[in-house]
């Protein structure tokens, strides 16, 4: 604003102008006002400046948020690992949850292996566990699917079982008292075994004609060229319809827990990068037929799983409704006995059981080409 314009403005405000001067100055003011209100930049330049400002703001925001997110992820990963694995050699949550999966499967799936589930922790307190589903025919065990379980804060989610072929349905093992009541006939199964050629191996689910002790089962199979895979146990005096569909049992080896593996030796190595250690542990020695040992670790497994009934219900394979605490109470009071057994071996050796009076029923599950050796 020039001094001349300021002078005119002052005279205009003091009403010292003549009408002509006043009219002329008002025109001048209108022209000045239009000049002052005119944008100093062209619209194109304005848009460029505005766009650049927006991107600058976005980049500044990203530079602030990304490090914050990385920090949150690092903290979350650290807390998740600490929660599931801890920092010591103590029994970790990861091991415990893996054992819940493994033990639930071992006592309900005659084909389950004894190896623990693979676990992998993620972020935000979640953990994933996977375990192979397998079958055994003769001397070979092969995968038939996979079970995947997700945990959040130790709470188990849906158990996802995927089979590589058709969904697996295990044969039924009945209670001996139901064989005649329900007219269960194994003629077609024996005929199937007769028709199968030499050079094959079979796996069969056998029902006894009466309840037997574990010692008696070993005695019956002594000298036979067959492997006993699994011992279903009687868990109630009732012989209701639940027996064909509810089975728990134990494999032909003790179900060892982590605290059963005793430390034999431990070595530590130190270097300028730190120190490392290695351990050698061993489980108690087992000789096949040691029924006391089998019973001891089976009951120990039931006591462990009694606190995980809900998880057990989701994982179990024998499509039943076993209440672990009730079953354990029955076994503690009445002892362990068996209404059947799962076996595998040469087909003709399985067929020879037809002549045994203690066999009540049989159902063949799998057949394969010869893979047998002792």
Automatic annotation (TrEMBL):
This is Sigma factor regulator. It comes from the Bacteria. The chain crosses the membrane at residues 61-85. Residues 193-366 form the Sigma factor regulator C-terminal domain. Residues 1-29 are annotated as: Disordered. The lineage of its organism: Bacteria, Bacillati, Bacillota, Bacilli, Bacillales. Residues 47-141 form the Sigma factor regulator N-terminal domain. InterPro entries: Sigma_reg_C_dom, Sigma_reg_N. Keywords: Membrane, Transmembrane, Transmembrane helix.
């Amino acid at each position: 604003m020039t001094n001349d314009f300021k002078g005119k403005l002052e005279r205009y405000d003091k009403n010292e102008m003549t009408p002509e001067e006043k009219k002329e100055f008002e025109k001048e003011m209108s022209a000045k006002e239009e000049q002052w209100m005119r944008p100093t930049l062209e619209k194109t330049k304005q848009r460029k400046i505005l766009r650049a400002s927006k991107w600058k703001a976005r980049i500044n925001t990203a530079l602030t948020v990304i490090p914050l997110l990385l920090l949150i992820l690092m903290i979350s990963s650290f807390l998740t690992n600490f929660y599931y694995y801890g920092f010591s050699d103590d029994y970790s949550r990861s091991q415990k949850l893996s054992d819940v999966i493994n033990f639930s499967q071992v006592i309900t799936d005659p084909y389950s292996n004894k190896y623990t589930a693979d676990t992998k922790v993620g972020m935000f307190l979640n953990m994933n566990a996977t375990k192979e589903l397998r079958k055994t025919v003769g001397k070979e065990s092969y995968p038939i699917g996979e079970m995947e379980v997700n945990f959040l804060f130790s709470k188990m989610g849906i158990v996802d079982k995927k089979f590589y072929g058709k969904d697996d349905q295990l044969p039924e093992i009945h209670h001996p008292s139901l064989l005649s009541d329900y007219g269960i006939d194994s003629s077609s199964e024996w005929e199937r075994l007769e028709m199968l050629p030499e050079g094959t191996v079979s796996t069969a689910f056998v029902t006894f004609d009466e309840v037997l002790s574990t010692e008696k089962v070993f005695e019956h199979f002594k000298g036979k060229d067959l492997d006993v895979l699994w011992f279903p146990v009687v868990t109630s005096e009732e012989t209701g319809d639940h027996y064909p569909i509810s089975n728990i049992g134990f494999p032909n080896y003790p179900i060892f827990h982590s605290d059963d593996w005793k430390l034999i030796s431990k070595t530590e190595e130190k270097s300028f990068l730190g120190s490392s250690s290695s351990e050698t542990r061993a489980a108690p020695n087992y000789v096949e037929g040691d029924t006391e040992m089998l019973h001891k670790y089976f009951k120990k497994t039931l006591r462990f799983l009694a606190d995980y009934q809900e998880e057990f219900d989701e994982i179990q394979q024998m499509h039943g409704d076993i209440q672990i605490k009730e079953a354990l109470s029955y076994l503690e009071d009445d002892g362990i006995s068996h209404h059947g057994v799962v076996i595998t071996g040469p087909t003709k050796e399985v067929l020879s059981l037809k002549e045994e009076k203690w066999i009540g029923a049989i159902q063949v599950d799998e057949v394969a080409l010869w893979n047998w050796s002792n």
